[in-house]
Amino acid sequence: YVAQHILTALDRKQAQEEVRQLALYDALTKLPNRRLLQERLALAILQARRDRLLLAIAFVDLDGFKPVNDRFGHAAGDLLLQAVASRMQACVREVDTVARIGGDEFIVLLSQIEHAGDALAVAEKIRHSLNQPFELDGYPSVSISSSTGVAVFPDHGEDPQSLTHAADLAMYQAKERGRNRVVLYAP
Length: 187
Known about the structure:
Blueprint lengths: L1 H23 L9 H18 L2 E10 L1 H8 L1 H17 L6 E6 L2 E9 L2 H16 L13 E9 L6 H17 L4 E4 L3
Parallel strand pairs: 4-5
Antiparallel strand pairs: 1-3, 1-4, 2-3
Helix pairs in contact: 3-4
C-alpha cells in the first residue's frame, strides 16, 4: 500500500510538471512561450524601473520560412524551427530569454543592457547566425534570413504591451526596407 501511494504521488508530481511544461513552453522548440515571456518581461520591467536600467526586446520574424515548409513539408519546417531556436539561444546571455510566440516569430528579451547599441549588436549577431545555411537531417541545405525590430525600455514603451508593439512595428519596418535587417523602433 505504501509503495502504491508513493508511486501515485510521484505520478501526480510528474503529471503536474508536464502540465506546467505545456502551459509555459513551446512544445516544438522547448523555448518559453508567449505566456512565460510576458511574465518574464513584466518582472524584468519592474526590476529595470527599480534599478534605473534599460532592457530591450527584439521581435524576430523569419524571412523565407514558408517556402521551406511548402517545398519540403512540415517535418522539415519543424527541424528548421528547432535549429533556429538553438542558434538564437547561442547568441544571448543566460539571463536573457528567447521565446517562440507562434509560427516563425520569436521575441528575445535582453535584460540589463547599458544602451540601445547593445541590443542592436545582439540582434545583428542573431541575424548573422540565421543567415548561415541550415543542414537538416534528410533534407538539402536550407537558407533563410530574418527581419528584426528592436524596442528599448523605457524609451519605446513602459509596459510589456507597448514595448512589444513598438518592436513589432520596427520588425515590419525591417520587412518594408527589404528584409534581412535589424531596425530600432522610431516613432
